[in-house]
Amino acid sequence: MKAFEIVSQAIDPQHYADMVLRPEAGAVTLFTGHVREWTKGVRTLYLSYEAYIPMAEKKLAQIGAEIEERWPGAKTAIAHRIGELAISDIAVVIAVSSPRRKAAYEANEYAIERIKEIVPIWKKEIWEDGEEWIGDQKKKPGGEGL
Amino acid sequence: MITIHYFAGLKEVTGIAQEQADLSGRTVEELGQWAAEKYPGILAGASRIAVNEEYALPEDLLENGDIAAFIPPVSGG
After folding, report:
1. 3-state SS string over chain A?
2. Tens digit of each residue's pLDDT (9 = 90 or more) over A72-92
3. Which run of H or of E encompasses B19?
C-alpha cells in the first residue's frame, strides 16, 4: 500500500491513519468522503469514478508535499477509490498527522480542497432517469484553461 | 508520434480512450486545434491538457513519445 494511491477496492481508513502515525505526532485527523444519496434534490443510485491513475497519484503526492511545506512536521496519506461505488461507500480518505492538532485539522481540509482542484479524477452520477459526468464543482485558480 | 488520452465525458465525445498522432514539434495549443477539428466540441469539455502527467501550457512543445491527455474539469473527492 502506498501513501498516495488510487484504489479499486473498498478503502480501510485505519491503514492510512496507521501510515502517518509516528512518535512525534500528537494528532491524527482522518477524513472520509462518502457517496451521498441526495444532491440538490436529485437522488443518486450509485457513482462511478474514473482517474488518470499515474497522474492522479503524482498529484496526490504533490498535495502531500505542499502540506509538508505549509505545515512543517505534518505527514499525509491519501487514497481515492475508482470504479462503481454505492451510497455511503468511502470514495476518499485523507489522514494527516502533526505534532499539534491545529495543523492536522487545517492540512486535512486543504487536502480535500486541492483534490477538487488538481487531481484528475472524475465522478459520474447515475440517477433513476439518467447519468452525467460531474465537473466544475469548484472554480479553478489561475489561468490554466484552454 | 505522440499518444493522446481522453477521459470521462471526453471519451464519449471522441468515441475512443486513446490514439496516436504525428504532432511532434507542434505546440500544446496546436494539439488542441487539431483535436477540435477532429472532434467538434472537445475544447468545451476539456479544461486543461496534460503532457507526460503534468499540466501543460499552450506554448509547450510536443516531442516524439510524449503522452498527452485532455483533462475535463475534475470532480474527485
Report:
1. CCCEEEECCCCCHHHHHHHHCCCCCCEEEEEEEECCCEECCEEEEEEEEEECHHHHHHHHHHHHHHHHHHCCCCEEEEEEECEEEECCCEEEEEEEEECCHHHHHHHHHHHHHHHHHHCCEEEEEEECCEEEEECCCCCCCCCCCC
2. 999 999 999 999 999 999 999
3. strand B18-21
Instruction: Please tell me the pTM assigned to this model.
Output: 0.93
Query: What value of ipTM does the predicted structure carry?
Result: 0.95
User: Which of A5-14, A51-60, A111-120, A128-137 shows the lowest mean pLDDT across its residues?
Assistant: A128-137
Residues of B in contact with A56 (CB under 8 A): 76
- Asked if B77 and A133 come within 8 Å (Cβ–Cβ), the reply is no
CA distance A13 to chain B (A): 15
**Interchain proximity A50–B8, CB inside 8 Å:** yes
Q: For residue A143, give the C-alpha cell.
A: 489561468
**Residues B50, A133: C-beta atoms closer than 8 Å:** no
Q: Is B59 on the interface with A (CB under 8 A)?
A: no
Task: Name which of A65, A63, A76, A54 is nearest A113 in CA terms.
Answer: A63
**How is residue A107 written as a grid cell?**
492540512
For cell 505545515, the residue is A71
Distance from CA of B55 to the nearest CA of A (A): 8
Q: Which residues of A46-70 are buried (b: 16+ CB within 10 A; e: fewer)?
A: bbbbbbbbebbbebbbebbebbeee
Grid coordinates given for A56: 492522479
> Average pLDDT for residues B11-29, to the nearest whole number?
97
